[in-house]
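Troubleshooting: if your tokenizer reports a length mismatch, compare your output against this known-good record of 382 residues.
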Amino acid sequence: MLYRAHSCTLRTVAFTALLLGVALPGVGLQKPDTQPGRFPVKVNEKWGFIDLSGKMIIPAVYDKVMKFYEGFGAAQIGDKWGFLNPEGEMVIEARFEKVFSFSEGLAAVKIGGKWGYIDNTGKMVIEPRFAYTWGFGEGLAYVSIDEPSRYIDGYIDKTGKMVFTVDGIGSTFSEGLAAIIQSPDSPDKNFKHFYVNHWGKRAFHGNFDSVGDFSEGLAAVSKSDKTGYINPAGKLVIPFRTRGAWGAFSEGLAVVTIRRRGRAAALYIDKTGTEAIQGDFVHADPFSEGLAAVLLRVGETTARTTKIPGAVVTEIIADLKYGYIDKTGSVVIPPQFTKADQFYGGLAFVCLDSTAAFDPLELHLPCGYIDRTGKHVWEPSQ
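Known-good structure output:
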């Protein structure tokens, strides 16, 4: 879902919030490459990459890394970012303050406090002049230019030309449309959401309270505290129901949250809106490679008291664990994980309980990778 920003500060928060949905660990707005089979791991506070078998293929010598996209993996050395090839060679020098992963042959990079774009040789092809930006999608990228008295928001092509401007913060194009959060400077002050096409025109009449990106021909939208799904023509395909966290379709199913027996419950619906998989899911993630991570109740809620300098802290510990289900709803990997990511390229990143006595921020979770049978190919480590 998109979020509204009402000021320069909240604009920054909105962009940060849009990035929080990325997978563990790494940054990006698109799905990672399933090839060349490089998976980030942390060893002694440094990051490297393993292959599908769990073999260390790129040594853990980097301060941070991002997953591979379009054959390049971003890596940080000190306070600068560059890009690795699948063999682990730094083929694009670490000289950027921040980066996004490659998308459609270009990567957004920040230098001198502004964002621009490089090609896969490292050449700056769109000079840094943007305050905010996303990766390219369908030949266009959202950018925001910070003028002295206002922001200019719009979409550029791969030459850097502004194709059209928009009245608000935009998302990446998917299936011909991009979602827009209306500018706080708009005359009606209602902060509605809508969609535009490749020419910058509203795709159809109507505003919504929140919108999602199109996926598999549908997008979740909310209006008057109810949520449903529309097609790219703006037609309501799945009727509005009680508002909740309704996700994008993936592999023919979408996660929706409803109220059941007095509490929130997650389940999966198909493209007719029919409940396809039900279960006692506290939380559920989209399907990927035929499996989905779900959060299940496995025991009673307990309390733990810990002494820390100057205080005694009581933690309430809910006995909830992630496992994985298949499309029949059967649990195929038993619930045992504190965190669990989607499968990509045959592996999923998972974390076990913290090894620290008091770790409310979960800074000491041992994490590793499992295969589709639930076997660890990289044993959990901090």
